[in-house]
Amino acid sequence: MAIIMLADIPARGGARHGRDAWAIRHGDDVITWGELADRALRRAHALRNRGLGVGDLVTLALPNGSQIYEWLFALWRIGATPHVVSYRLPESELRAIIEVAKSAMVVASDPQLQSSLGAFAADLGMDCDDLSPLEPVLADNWKAMSSGGSTGRPKIIVAPGPNAFDDEKKPPLRFPAEGPILATGPIYHNMPMTTNLQALFEGHPVIGMERFDPEEALRLIDEHAIAWTSFVPTMMMRISRLPEAVRSKYDVTSLKTVWHWAAPMPAELKQEWIDWLGPETIWELYGGTEGIVTAILNGTEWLEHRGSVGRAVGSEIKIVDDEGTEVPQGEIGEIFALPASGAGSTYSYIGAERRTIAGGFETIGDFGWMDDEGYLYIADRRTDMIVSGGANVFPAEVEGALMAHPAVAEAVVIGLPDSDLGARVHAIVQVVEDLEAHGLDEPDSETLVAFLRERIVTYKIPRSFEFTRQRLRDDAGKVRRQQLREDRLTQAAVS
Q1: CATH number at residue 15
Q2: Are strands 141-147 and 315-320 parallel, antiparallel or unpaired?
Q3: Is 256 helix (H, G, I), strand (E, B) or coil?
């Protein structure tokens, strides 16, 4: 076993490629392996001089760019735990998260947050001249991520395990033998942070995007002959909706592995990508930040198990009813899992309680079912399910059907109070930009209802629609469903 401290990744990359070779780039923001090592060391000395160290949780509200990596490697060197959040969070939500996390320090790029929350600026430590060696400190936790945006109750998910990687145990991410990877997502999301770090650990430079743009992603793939990248389904939809004249300008034949994760994938969209790049190129990963369950499958498997997210890797799964009893194969229930490393081994919560059943099996709140070959299928989140007229409606299924319509860029389905049904299915539809350029008409509720009748059963079809040009999902492909619902309830109360 060869343990490498996370703080030593920049020096490791510099030894492999040379200190002057670039390590990370976001547009014009380019940093070499040597610069990354030195800047992280300066910040580490400055942080230690302020009394920070092992066990301290430091909240980082910073955009994609070289600075956030400097902070990560600095914090790992002193044994502190980085807690990365979206820099676009409303102040009230960030304040609530900080209170739950009991952050020892907050670093923010927004001057307003620096003033109102007492956050430190992102350039803290860059005036430190101390570049003397500072041995990395082993710590029990290597990262913390926030969750709870869908429920409105913030919780912190802390990843246990040392702030180090085992060079002999690499996850099956299918990185190429050499060359850069394209990182399209925000680093405050679990998978981009984890995969970007693993890529740097294995010596791959990382090309990031300050903010996702579909044509720019294709241009970067073409320019740098990218073999490995990852998306969330929203990004893939936006690429698919580019005019053919735009898509065909770029050579993407270098791609060998394209992962998608973080949100449900509409079947028609996945089929389109398989047809475009080949089933051997498209890979899916299902899991949560908690790490209790991970499922993986490639495009070839998906064609044989259409709609599946794969078979579990490193964990045992049970599908149970509300009483914790396993349901018959093929029936929908709540997904509980037990990792091979044992109950309680993969995470801890701050601000929330685990939900467990006998044997130490835990859940992250997803519903789904298993087929007779052990392939897992996801229905939706427990908290998102709508009970309408006594029937269960899973928003993800309705959203996927809506997004198959060429004029729909995104869709979010929520339940709203209804005197007859208890809750009615309501769809918020983000309309595709430049409808005329795509030869499309403005969608309306009648058109979409007729479209949905061919795809889902009648009781799942939304009873009401609203249309918007505003983005419904964030850069990580996540939707703030609870907030959208509360906004509409508030509007109804004052109207």
Answers
A1: 3.40.50.12780
A2: unpaired
A3: coil
> Does the residue 144 lie in any domain?
yes
Q: Is residue 42 exposed (0-12), middle (13-18) or buried (19+ Cβ within 10 Å)?
A: buried
Q: Which two tokens stand for residue 2?
A: 């060869």
Which CATH number covers residue 434? 3.30.300.30
List helix spans (H) across 227-305.
233-240, 244-247, 267-277, 299-304
Residue (of 24, 26, 28, 2) closest to 13 by Cα position: 24
The tokens for 96 are 């609530």
User: pLDDT tens across 303-316, in order?
Assistant: 999 999 999 999 99
Distance between CA atoms of residues 135 and 344, nearest Å: 30
Domain total in the chain: 2
How far is C-alpha 210 from the chain's CA centre?
A: 15
Where a domain ends, among 118, 137, 169?
A: 169
pLDDT single digits (tens) 74-131: 999 999 999 999 998 889 889 999 999 999 999 999 999 999 999 999 999 999 999 9
- Predicted TM-score (pTM) of this structure: 0.88
Domain membership of residue 488 (yes or no) is: yes
- 25 contacts 184 by C-beta, under 8 angstroms: no
- Would you say residue 251 lies in a domain? no
CA dist 350 → 144, 148, 361, 468 (Å): 10, 11, 19, 36
Domain, as residue range, for 55? 3-169
Q: What is the pLDDT of residues 105-118, one digit of tens each?
A: 999 999 999 999 99
